[in-house]
Design goal:
This protein has helices at about 1-15, 35-45, 60-65, 155-165, 200-215, 220-225, 245-255, 260-275, 280-285, 285-290; strands spanning about 125-130, 150-155, 165-170, 170-175, 185, 195-200, 305-310, 320-325, 330-335, 340-345, 355, 365-370, 375-380. It folds into two domains: about 30-290, no CATH class; about 305-380, Immunoglobulin-like (Sandwich), CATH 2.60.40. The chain is of the alpha+beta class. Helix 5 (about 200-215) packs across helix 7. It is built from ten helices and 13 strands. The strands form four sheets. A four-stranded mixed beta sheet has the order 3-6-5-4, with no helix packed on it. It has a four-stranded antiparallel beta sheet with strand order 10-9-12-13, with helices on one face. Bound molecules: calcium ion (3 copies). One calcium ion binds near residues 85 and 86.
């Protein structure tokens, strides 16, 4: 009976933490933009326990016992490795369609956790991947970042090592494709050149929300991270928005294209039980838009058209912009193509009048956005 009661008690505790605690987000009220971000930063910093990186079965190794198990695809309770999971329905029920599976735990306990020896191919062991590369924020000694289960995830050792400190991005020409379709190659996102690492579509939103968590949880240190001057880091040196426009725009798109799933909700609850803080963008994905603005989409019929561009279609490179507000108040203007890629950012666009000089844009339809104002225009 005593045993029964204690397992019942554990069961109740499990239920009790498997949801947003009452009052957790008190004080967010009607906040938006940087004010909401800063309030969330304080909420998710309170209660965050640094559980350590871990050795053996402690720290993150222990976290993965509950945070990243496959009860969604194969439903076989193996490690859910986003760099090797094949999310397509299994053609043969009960038979995994993943290239390989990892059992939780150390080798001595029959698991596939990496030890001291590794191999240069996929499928050997799983280790701990800083989905935002640790070199960008000061390396393994920079805690609690380096130990934060909200964005440090279990992945295949080999894919992780090939990724190194590449940014996530979208690959134009792949130089390497891993077994589940994860890719490395040249960036096709305007605003960033060089090599990037592209997770599969199923997990792009998961990754995006992890990184939005990072720039919120650690907003007070973002300027320090930026000043480390690590080549390729996506920070913008400010608390807000926190990432450079090419990167934040891509994350907003990824988050919109791959909305929150049960897997992320469960993971968020498990991480909260483990280290005491939550990812607010899994609990309230609508806050992503409240803070950083809408992800631009191709067929957004709701364009407010509260900016006017002349001439439109554009002739030459100079356009005159008028709006229903004083445009001088806006510190930046952005031009996007119709797949939402930022193709030009103009600093202090309207300080000296209402004209903008466009880069040499290919023929097509574009979106000009400044502040909350936007419109479409044509280059032909
Ligand atoms: Ca699986
Ligand atoms: Ca699978
Ligand atoms: Ca997803």
């Amino acid at each position: 009976m005593k045993k029964y009661l204690s397992s019942l008690f554990i069961g109740i505790m499990g239920v009790a933490v498997a949801q947003i605690p009452t009052g957790y987000y008190d004080g967010t009220g009607n906040l938006t933009g940087s004010a909401l971000k800063t309030k969330l930063s304080s909420i998710i910093t309170n209660g965050h326990r640094d559980m350590g990186y871990g050795t053996g079965s402690t720290g993150l190794w222990k976290a993965y016992q509950t945070t990243d198990r496959d009860t969604y695809y194969e439903k076989d309770n193996t490690i859910l490795d986003m760099y090797s999971e094949n999310p397509a329905a299994n053609p043969v029920p009960g038979v995994s369609n993943d290239p390989y599976e990892y059992k939780y735990g150390q080798a001595s306990a029959g698991g596939n956790q990496c030890g001291s020896t590794n191999q240069n191919n996929e499928g050997y062991c799983y280790n701990r991947e800083h989905s935002l590369p640790k070199s960008f924020f000061g390396g393994q000694s920079a805690v609690p970042m380096a130990n934060d289960a909200n964005f440090v995830i279990p992945t295949d050792y080999f894919v992780n090592s090939k990724r190194g400190n590449l940014n996530y991005g979208e690959v134009g020409t792949a130089s390497q494709t891993f077994l589940n379709g994860t890719k490395i190659g040249t960036s096709k996102v305007d605003g960033f050149f060089g090599t990037v690492f592209e997770p599969i579509n199923e997990f792009k939103g998961d990754m995006a929300r992890m990184h939005l968590y990072f720039i919120t949880r650690y907003e007070n240190q973002l300027n320090d991270f930026y000043n480390l001057n690590v080549t390729g880091n996506p920070f913008d040196g400010a608390k807000f928005p926190g990432f450079q426009s090419w990167y934040i725009n891509m994350l907003l798109r990824w988050s919109a294209q791959d909305p929150v799933s049960q897997k992320e909700i469960d993971r968020n609850n498990a991480v909260y039980a483990y280290q005491g803080n939550r990812n607010p963008f899994i609990d309230h994905p609508e806050w992503i838009t409240s803070i950083w603005g809408p992800a631009l989409s191709v067929d957004d019929a709701s364009f407010s058209k509260n900016l006017q561009i002349a001439p439109n279609p554009v002739r030459g490179s100079v356009i005159t912009v008028t709006g229903n507000k004083d445009l001088k108040q806006f510190s930046k203007a952005f031009i996007y193509n119709l797949v939402g890629q930022n193709v030009q950012t103009i600093e202090k666009p309207f300080q000296n009048g209402n004209t903008i000089t466009l880069k040499n844009l290919p023929k097509g339809v574009y979106i000009l956005k400044t502040g909350e104002l936007n419109t479409k225009f044509i280059v032909d």
